[in-house]
Amino acid sequence: MRVLSIDPALRNTGYAIIERIEGKRSPEYQTITYGVVKNSRKLRQSGCLVAIREQIADLIREHSPEQCAIEAVIYVQSYKTAITLGAARAASMIAAADHGLEIYEYAPRRVKQAIVGRGAADKQQVAFMIRALLKLTETPGPDEADALAIGIAHFYAIDSSRPLSNQAEPI
């Protein structure tokens, strides 16, 4: 199974496509691609949203994921930031929905708990664990690491053999 995972933001949306390969003892995970949709500070919000939707749609067409996992809305102190994050999230979700993908959402604390074992882990800890779990040759940047972590957390959540799995429901 292949999953597209997304860490949405207006200027730097992290993305990853990960494949789960069933092994003899336990599944293994292969990183197909990961990166960041980068939008210039000069680009208006509407242009950023179009770029996010188009680049996510391109990834879906190129790599054919079966599901999408995305970071849930987080608490922020500024309503303007919350609205901007929600818009970037929506642009990504629309791209996934346009291609018929089921979409699952995961709270940042839940992702950190799944990857590091602690919901209050910092970004460096998440990136370090992702590098180890996926056997990457270099540590991914923070947005890429978060997207990769969301994908792995999704696989853990849908794995009924895991003791703490929460059978995830698409939104």
Descriptive notes:
The protein is built from five helices and five strands; from the N terminus they run E-E-E-H-E-H-E-H-H-H. 39% of the residues are buried. It is of the alpha/beta class. The mean pLDDT is 91. It has one domain (2-158): 2-Layer Sandwich (Nucleotidyltransferase, domain 5), CATH 3.30.420. The chain has a five-stranded mixed β-sheet, sandwiched between helices. The two termini are 19 Å apart. Helix 1 (45-63) packs parallel to helix 2, helix 3 (108-116) crosses helix 5 (142-158) and helix 4 packs across helix 5. The protein has helices at residues 45-63, 79-98, 108-116, 123-133, 142-158, and strands spanning 2-7, 12-21, 28-38, 67-71, 102-106.
